[in-house]
Amino acid sequence: MSEDVSRNAERRRPDRAALVIAPALLLLAAVIWWDASRLSAMSNYARIGPATVPHVVALGLALLAVWTAFEAWRGDFPEREPIETVPVVWIVAGLAGQMLLLRPAGFSIATGLLFALTAYGFGRRKLWISLPVGIVLSFLVWIVFGRLLQLSLPAGPLEHLFFRGS
């Protein structure tokens, strides 16, 4: 019986990580509410305007902050799995590579590299397959958004090879 009591006491300890997340959510809600309030000053001719949805989002975040704090204090969050840092490093490396290569190499090559390194981080170890597949998929995305929808995406050597005026 004393073992059950000690287990319940251990399980009921406040979750410190969630107690940090709750005020962060509340701060985010306050920033969104403040920014939306500036929008409502611009258009006060209608009850529903550009500030309505941000106000609803801010209220939702505030409720989530209160709920998170309550659950954290009760210790009701499930135990988290340990974080594996190596996959995170591969994904962050892919993001950094994309940011560095976006202008010189273009959207398709930079985003293909992001695709390949993210796949590597998730366990797909064949970069010689993931990289070309990522570049082809990214090139198709570039065609849809850059050519068909006329959005501005950085064009590199691959895009210029197929579309001269890009």
From TrEMBL:
Coiled coil regions in record: none
InterPro entries: DUF1468 (IPR009936)
Organism domain of life: Bacteria
Statement: the UniProt record of this protein carries the keyword Membrane: yes
Transmembrane segments: 17-36, 48-70, 90-115, 127-145
UniProt keyword terms in alphabetical order: Membrane, Transmembrane, Transmembrane helix
Residue ranges annotated for the DUF1468 domain, each copy included: 21-154
Designated name of the protein: Tripartite tricarboxylate transporter TctB family protein
Protein species of origin: Shinella pollutisoli
Lineage of the organism: Bacteria, Pseudomonadati, Pseudomonadota, Alphaproteobacteria, Hyphomicrobiales
